[in-house]
Amino acid sequence: MPDRSLRAIQQAMQQCLTDGDERIRSLIVGTPGFSIETRLGIYTEAYRLRLIDALGDAYPAVHTLLGDEGFHALATAYIDRHPSHFRSIRWFGDRLATFLADHPAWKDTPLLAEMARFEWSLRGAFDAADFTPLTTQALHDVPPEHWAGLRLVFSPTLQEPCYFNWNSVKLWQAIDAESDPIPPQRLAQPETWLIWRNTEQQTRFRSLLVDEAWAMNSMRQGQDFAAICDGLGEWLDEEHIAARAAGFLHQWLEDELVVAIETGNTSP
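Request: output the structure for the sequence above.
Response:
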C-alpha cells in the first residue's frame, strides 16, 4: 500500500472485510501467537457475525421458519452475494426477498420470499418519517365541483403493497405472538396487503379486496377521483361506483394514510 494515510488504511480494511481484498495485509503485524491470517480472520468473522445478527433482527420470522442452521446458511450466502456497502447497518438486508425468490436453494419455497418482503415492509413503515395525517373533515371541505380532479398525497410510512400467495401474514402473527405454529398454506386466491404506521407509532397492516387494491395503486400513481370511478366499473354497477370510491377515501383518511388532498390548483 503506497498510500498509508488514515483514510487509505480505513478503506483498505473495509475492502478486506467486504470484498476479501487483502492489500491491508502489508500493514498487519503478526506475532508467534497471532499470525496475520489469525488477526484478519478475527475481524472478518466478527464483522460477518454482526451482519448475520442484523439480518436476524430484521427477519425474525424468516429465521424461525428456517431454524438456526438454515438461517445461518441463508445469511452467509446473502452476505457473499450482497456485501454491505451501507453507512448504516439498518439498511443491510434490503434485497433478501429477491435473493430468496431467485436463489436455487430457496426459490422452491416461495413462502420465504413472501415472509421476507412482509418483514422488510414492516421495518420500512416503522422507520419512515413522521407525518401529520388529514382527518375525514378534509374531504367534507372539498367543493363538489372539485371532486372529479381530487388526488391524494399519502403518508411516507405507506409501503408498496405486498402480494401474497401463501398465508404469510397469519404465519407471521403466530410467530410474533409465540403461539402454537401453524402450517404453511397456499391461498385459494392471492391477497394484497397494505402496510403503514399510524401516529401512535404502531405498525398497521390489513388486506385489500381487489377493487380497493386497484384504486389505491391508481391513486398512488397520480390518477384522480374521476379516473378511479371510471376504472371501478370493472367490478361495480354504475349506481354503486361513486359511493364505493368515496368510501375508499374515507377509509384511507381514517387509517391515517393521507397527508394532503390536491384538487387541480386548489389544495384545501
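The chain has a mean pLDDT of 90.
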